[in-house]
């Protein structure tokens, strides 16, 4: 029995760098494994968040009917789980209704938000049809704001075409928020909602835009059209909303026709329905359609608005909570064949609108007709007010610019230390 | 030919004779095992045979009973147990008889063989009379037989677990051993054998150490033995004290004053071999107290199984001066000798442990020594002072040290450039490294390194890297910690202005002719890695420039001239370092925004890694494999193009049972590849799954690799989705039986609990991956039959109450995945499970947000599953 060796490490680190590399690799691998599981689970979680965001307590306006029953044939085991994949296979009014509630809708800019240059992006909105583009299971479907299908086509988006080697795993799906620009037959992507099954709903605009920029190009979706890729996709350039960013978005030359400027708050998540954290602003120079046209494409002499009729005869905007504009008497409702939930078109009379603190004190409304069936929503408060101002004293680009320069000056003021 | 001649021939200088004899021995063994073992035992016992043949007979016999590899050992045990009883009885008798042989070596060999047989038989309740017959008339035995008997008892205690020996026998063994140690025993050989036997038997003495009288007796005898005139006995007695310090820490309060006096005398006056053990006693006490105090710190309640007696703190005023004295007994060239261990080194190491055990209190006891000696003309005094300073930097609070360190820093930098002694510079550079390790970084309020001194520090370190290899190695180490301190500095690192110079200097060090001395090259690459790891975006362009440089170096190592085996070993070591460095760079640059430019090197890099697999070196393989894992993650689906060529090395890695680290790393890399390729990995899955299943069934593969293999099942299933169908019939039963095993397996000790939890985690990760992979597939029904067992598994690990937080999170996630994928089919089952109630609620109210998150997910999924 020999004496036992009792040497201890001398002037040495207890862990070798090789062990450290090994440990770091294991850490990275387990992190990535848990990310991958998280992504897989998010397939379902994003559905949960979709459902809850359109559940009555969150958004009563957009969901006037219960969720459609989606227990469609061949998916018995999935009866309880409502996934976007299945939603994409919905047909008819159910599908329209469901998709209609999924877009994030900008408010119109009726005053300039604070910290514009610090917290907001600006981008030139392409003129065209706003739509949701969903790619999954080898097909890509675009749906308009009212839920109706615009195109059904193969694309280079993940899972967007029945072509080997392009699609991701079977369950993968992607959802983009786009504007389809007729002239060059291009989908201009303004936001990314899901990517390869990974939900971006709970991500900030800053992250979504970054992800959009880095991911879309990888897929070949921005390539010119080909057999497996019927329409080109293109990312809309966005800028920090400082003087030069605003200038670029406002005056810069772009491959598409502009229709106003969109402002995104960098910290905002993708919120379905109306949100004050995305704003649209237009003037004559950057949009052909500043003032709403009627069904014949003519600018009517009076401003037209569409409101929703409630049970109690109140006519309201599409906001959450809805803003009451006026009240119709029961006889008139009956006489005109209106029913609760109807969307009704009015003209604003010479008496105009008078509002205080976001509520209408007085509104001179003249009934025109029930709105046409293609419409899914009433007008929002901000749209009504923007249009109203546009006809009288519009918010000008100079107002935006001067707000930014004021903010800059404030930033430059020396900080004052409180001494008492 | 008779066995004696065979055994002698097997030791012949003549190779052919030797080889022939070995073959004949093998032949004999394979033709008649019982006869073979019996004749070996007979040879060993026969006093008329030559000593050499008897010793070899014993050795061959011993090797027929035990082996290092677990599976081989198991085979040998089974083989022995299946021998006929008559043979075994005869062999046992021969072995016991040999203990009375006049030849010491033969007795000693017999002792070891007896212990091996006991190790196999006692757990089976065979040879129950062994202990009795060894002890029956121990007092009447001649000294040499007594010595052999005590030695046998020692080996027996080493070989056998305490729970298979009855307490009555334990008491007899200890009584015999302690009596043999007693000063009254006149024969030194007997006393030494007894003392060494006690060292082995201490683990059996739990009951005896709980009895005050018996413990007092044992302690008295041990302490007396430390004063024996025979140096070997003193050394062995101190070894016992060291072992008692860690095994019976909580029983020592009563003896500490005496032990201090004994150890102090030994440290100051005794032979170095004894003094080293005496210091080790205090190091062990510190180890215990550091552990206990760490546990105090970790718990909210502040209670711990073992209370801290603060022995170190109480001994401080006497112990510190004792240790400081030892620091002055350095050997001239101890820093140049890798294997050196002397009293100065042991004393300094112990001082460092004391600092960790007592914290702030040590500082006033050490500072006067440092101040007095740091500028003395004798290098020994300067070095001792510096070493003392470096030793106490871990333990005391930064507040306590900050002023002292700030004052010392300039002095240290100066010493590093000007001190004539290599030894002093070595210790000074090491001390600087310790300063940066413990007192520099984002958690320290007032920084040691400031804008004012940063330039000077770096300049001095870079200068020192040109010094002798041992000094330069410490300077690299200091740079390592300097960089590490800036790990989470944010976008602007103070190192940025010096980055280029640091990289250049480290490369220059790695290329020094003498870089293979004192681990210098390794230290240089390690520092380089840390500098890269902790670099910011500001310097990514410079890291990018490093890529072709390191690749070229790796390329050069692969251009094979004929090398000697020594040169090849160094070459392989270098390949490992370079692959490691590339791995660090890949992780740094392989993501946005540098990814695109970096990936232009990917093809070439992959080519180099594949060539490294052509060299025979486990370390280089492992490093290359790790680097490839990182590359796969960066490359994503593009990694597919490397698969056809890479696949065979992947398979090779999975088959490498001997160097199990390579196998483990390969399993991890398969996970990386799954996530990179997703369903493009499908063509390779048959091969990979086959190999993984083989690995799991093997009893040769180190057990630590098995949990990650299960996790890897999950990775594969998640990547290929319902295509995993064809592996279900193989993988599920394996998961199921491992789950049963791991549900109740823990408890034995911390290590076992830890392993059990890692096994559970692997199994659960596999289930998670499989469920998520099958989701939305019509084939989910294939999984329904497994649901009851999985729920049962979750319930039982919850009931065991010994899972760690990682398992908890994974387990509750599996509950959600099961509900999510199988939906209404398992709604009822889930509702019946404990997991869906108590376990889920416990997780929902967890403080750990990742557990809570997983639990919320499970709750959602269950709600949907049962709402239909």
From TrEMBL, chain A:
GO biological process: snRNA import into nucleus
One GO cellular component term: nucleus
UniProt-annotated stretches for the region Disordered: 1-88
Snurportin-1 m3G cap-binding domain location: 102-279
The keyword Nucleotide-binding is annotated on this UniProt entry: no
Domain of life the protein comes from: Eukaryota
Ranges of biased composition (kind: Low complexity): 45-55
Compositionally biased region (Polar residues): 79-88
Ranges of Basic and acidic residues composition bias in the record: 1-25
Keywords: Cytoplasm, Nucleus, RNA-binding, Transport
Compartment(s): Cytoplasm; Nucleus
GO molecular function: RNA binding
Cited InterPro entries: Snurportin-1, Snurportin1_C
Protein family: Belongs to the snurportin family.
Function: Functions as an U snRNP-specific nuclear import adapter. Involved in the trimethylguanosine (m3G)-cap-dependent nuclear import of U snRNPs. Binds specifically to the terminal m3G-cap U snRNAs.
PANTHER family xref list: SNURPORTIN-1, SNURPORTIN1 RNUT1 PROTEIN RNA, U TRANSPORTER 1
Protein name: Snurportin-1
Protein's organism: Brassica oleracea var. oleracea
UniProtKB/TrEMBL annotation, chain B:
UniProt xrefs under Gene3D superfamilies: Leucine-rich Repeat Variant
Coiled-coil segments on the chain, per record: none
Pfam families: HEAT_EZ, IBN_N, TPR_IMB1
InterPro entries for the chain: ARM-like (IPR011989), ARM-type_fold (IPR016024), IMB1_TNPO1-like_TPR (IPR058584), Importin-beta_N (IPR001494), Importin_beta (IPR040122)
Domain Importin N-terminal: 21-101
Keyword Transport: yes
Chief location bin: cytoplasm
UniProt keyword annotations, A-Z: Cytoplasm, Protein transport, Repeat, Transport
Domain of life the protein comes from: Eukaryota
Gene Ontology BP annotations: protein import into nucleus
Keyword Cell membrane: no
Any GO molecular function: small GTPase binding
Record-level GO cellular component terms: cytoplasm; nucleus
Subcellular location: Cytoplasm
Family according to the record: Belongs to the importin beta family. Importin beta-1 subfamily.
Protein known as: Importin N-terminal domain-containing protein
Organism: Brassica oleracea var. oleracea
């Amino acid at each position: 029995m020999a004496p036992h060796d009792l040497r201890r490490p001398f002037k040495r680190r207890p862990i070798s760098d090789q062990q450290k590399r090994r440990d770091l690799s294991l850490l990275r691998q387990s992190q990535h494994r848990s990310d991958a599981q998280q992504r897989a689970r998010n397939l379902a979680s994003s559905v949960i968040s979709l459902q809850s965001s359109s559940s009555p307590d969150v958004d009563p306006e957009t969901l006037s009917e219960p969720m459609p029953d989606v227990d469609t044939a061949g998916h018995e085991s999935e009866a309880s789980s409502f996934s976007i994949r299945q939603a994409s296979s919905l047909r008819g009014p159910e599908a329209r209704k469901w998709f209609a509630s999924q877009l994030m809708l900008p408010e119109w800019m009726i005053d300039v938000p604070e910290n514009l240059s610090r917290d907001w992006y600006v981008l030139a909105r392409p003129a065209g049809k706003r739509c949701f583009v969903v790619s999954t299971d080898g097909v890509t479907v675009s749906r308009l704001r009212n839920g109706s299908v615009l195109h059904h086509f193969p694309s280079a988006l993940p899972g967007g075409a029945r072509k080997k080697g392009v699609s991701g795993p079977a369950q993968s799906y992607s959802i983009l928020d786009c504007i389809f620009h007729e002239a060059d037959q291009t989908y201009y992507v303004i936001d990314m909602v899901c990517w390869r099954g990974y939900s971006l709903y709970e991500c900030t605009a800053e992250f979504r835009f970054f992800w959009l920029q880095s991911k879309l190009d990888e897929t070949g979706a921005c390539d010119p059209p080909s057999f497996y890729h019927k329409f080109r996709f293109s990312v809309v350039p966005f800028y920090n909303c400082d003087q030069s960013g605003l200038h670029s978005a406002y005056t810069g030359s772009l491959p598409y026709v502009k229709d106003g400027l969109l402002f995104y708050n960098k910290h905002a998540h993708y919120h379905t329905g109306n949100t004050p954290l995305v704003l649209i602003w237009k003037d004559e120079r950057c949009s052909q359609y500043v003032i709403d046209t009627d069904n014949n494409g003519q600018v009517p002499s009076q401003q037209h608005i569409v409101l929703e009729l409630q049970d109690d005869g109140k006519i309201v905007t599409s906001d959450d909570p809805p803003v009451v504009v006026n009240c119709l008497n029961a006889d008139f409702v009956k006489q005109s064949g209106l029913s609760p939930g109807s969307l009704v078109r009015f003209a604003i009379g010479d008496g105009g609108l008078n509002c205080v603190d976001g509520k209408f004190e007085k509104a001179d409304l003249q009934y025109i007709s029930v709105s046409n069936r293609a419409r899914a929503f009433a007008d929002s408060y901000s749209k009504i007010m923007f249009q109203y101002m546009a006809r009288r004293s519009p918010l000008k680009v100079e107002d935006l610019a001067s707000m930014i320069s004021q903010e800059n000056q404030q930033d430059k003021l020396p900080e004052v230390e409180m001494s008492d | 030919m008779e066995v004696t001649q065979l055994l002698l021939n097997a030791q012949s200088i003549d190779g052919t004779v030797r080889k022939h004899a070995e073959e004949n021995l093998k032949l004999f063994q394979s033709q008649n095992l019982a006869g073979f073992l019996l004749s070996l035992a007979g040879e060993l016992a026969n006093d008329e045979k030559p000593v050499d043949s008897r010793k070899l007979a014993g050795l061959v016999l011993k090797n027929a009973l035990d082996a290092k590899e677990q599976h081989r050992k198991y085979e040998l045990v089974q083989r022995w147990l299946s021998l006929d009883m008559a043979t075994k009885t005869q062999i046992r008798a021969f072995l016991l008889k040999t203990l009375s042989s006049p030849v010491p070596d033969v007795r000693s060999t017999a002792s070891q063989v007896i212990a091996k047989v006991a190790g196999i038989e006692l757990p089976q309740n065979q040879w129950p009379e062994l202990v009795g017959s060894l002890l029956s008339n121990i007092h009447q035995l001649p000294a040499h037989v007594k010595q052999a008997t005590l030695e046998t008892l020692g080996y027996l205690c080493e070989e056998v677990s305490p729970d298979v020996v009855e307490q009555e026998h334990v008491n007899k063994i200890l009584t015999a051993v302690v009596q043999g140690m007693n000063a009254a025993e006149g024969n030194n050989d007997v006393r030494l054998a007894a003392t060494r036997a006690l060292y082995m038997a201490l683990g059996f003495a739990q009951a005896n150490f709980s009895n005050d009288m018996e413990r007092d007796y044992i302690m008295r005898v041990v302490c007396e033995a430390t004063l024996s005139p025979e140096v070997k006995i003193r050394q062995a007695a101190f070894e016992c004290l060291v072992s008692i310090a860690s095994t019976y820490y909580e029983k020592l309060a009563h003896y500490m004053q005496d032990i201090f006096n004994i150890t102090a005398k030994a440290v100051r006056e005794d032979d170095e071999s004894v003094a080293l053990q005496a210091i080790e006693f205090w190091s062990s006490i510190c180890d215990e107290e550091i552990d206990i105090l760490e546990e105090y710190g970790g718990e909210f309640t502040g209670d711990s199984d073992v209370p801290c007696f603060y022995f170190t703190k109480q001994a401080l005023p006497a112990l510190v001066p004792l240790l400081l004295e030892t620091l002055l007994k350095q050997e001239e060239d101890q820093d140049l000798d890798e294997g050196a261990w002397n009293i100065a080194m042991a004393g300094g190491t112990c001082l460092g442990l004391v600092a960790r055990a007592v914290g702030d209190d040590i500082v006033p006891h050490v500072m006067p020594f440092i101040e007095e000696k740091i500028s003395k003309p004798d290098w020994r005094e300067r070095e001792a002072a510096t070493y003392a300073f470096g030793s106490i930097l871990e333990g005391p609070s930064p507040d306590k040290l900050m002023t002292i360190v700030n004052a010392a820093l300039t002095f240290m930098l100066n010493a590093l450039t000007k001190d004539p002694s290599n030894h002093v510079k070595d210790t000074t550079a090491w001390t600087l490294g310790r300063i940066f390790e413990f007192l520099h970084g984002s958690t320290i309020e007032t920084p040691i390194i400031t804008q004012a001194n940063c330039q000077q520090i770096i300049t001095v370190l870079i200068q020192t890297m040109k010094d002798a290899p041992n000094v330069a190695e410490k300077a690299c180490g200091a740079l390592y910690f300097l960089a590490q301190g800036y790990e989470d500095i944010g976008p602007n690192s103070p190192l940025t202005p010096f980055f280029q110079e640091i990289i250049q200097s480290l490369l220059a060090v790695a290329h020094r002719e003498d870089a293979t001395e004192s681990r210098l090259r390794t230290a240089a690459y390690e520092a380089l890695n840390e500098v890269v790891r902790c670099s910011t975006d500001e310097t990514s362009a410079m890291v990018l420039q490093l890529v072709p440089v390191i690749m070229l170096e790796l390329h050069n190592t692969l251009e094979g001239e004929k090398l000697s085996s020594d040169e090849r070993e160094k070459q392989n070591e270098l390949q490992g370092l370079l692959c490691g460095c590339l791995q660090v760079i890949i992780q740094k640059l392989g993501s946005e925004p540098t990814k695109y430019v970096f990936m232009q090197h990917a093809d070439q890099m992959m080519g180099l890694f594949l060539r490294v697999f052509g060299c025979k070196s486990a370390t280089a393989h492992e490093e290359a494999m790790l680097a490839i894992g990182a590359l796969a993650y960066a490359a994503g689906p593009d990694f597919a193009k490397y698969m056809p060529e890479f696949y065979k090395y992947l398979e090779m890695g999975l088959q490498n049972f001997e160097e199990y680290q390579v196998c483990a790393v390969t399993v991890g890399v398969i996970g990386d590849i799954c996530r990179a390729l997703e369903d493009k990995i499908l063509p390779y899955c048959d091969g990979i799954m086959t190999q993984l299943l083989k690995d799991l069934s093997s009893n040769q593969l180190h057990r630590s690799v098995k949990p990650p293999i299960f996790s890897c099942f999950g990775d594969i299933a998640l990547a290929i989705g319902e295509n995993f169908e064809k592996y279900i019939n193989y993988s599920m039963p394996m998961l199921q039986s491992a789950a049963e095993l791991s549900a109740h397996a823990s408890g034995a000790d911390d290590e076992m609990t830890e392993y059990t939890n890692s096994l559970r985690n692997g199994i659960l990760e596999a289930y998670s991956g499989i469920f998520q992979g099958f989701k939305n597939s019509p084939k989910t029904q294939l999984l329904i039959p497994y649901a009851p067992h999985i729920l049962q598994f979750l319930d039982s690990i919850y009931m065991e109450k010994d899972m760690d937080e990682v398992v908890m999170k994974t387990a509750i996630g599996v509950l959600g995945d099961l509900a999510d994928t199988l939906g209404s089919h398992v709604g009822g089952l889930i509702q019946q499970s404990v997991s869906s109630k108590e376990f889920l609620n416990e997780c929902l109210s967890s403080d750990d947000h990742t557990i809570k998150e997983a639990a919320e997910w499970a709750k959602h999924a269950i709600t949907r599953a049962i709402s239909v």
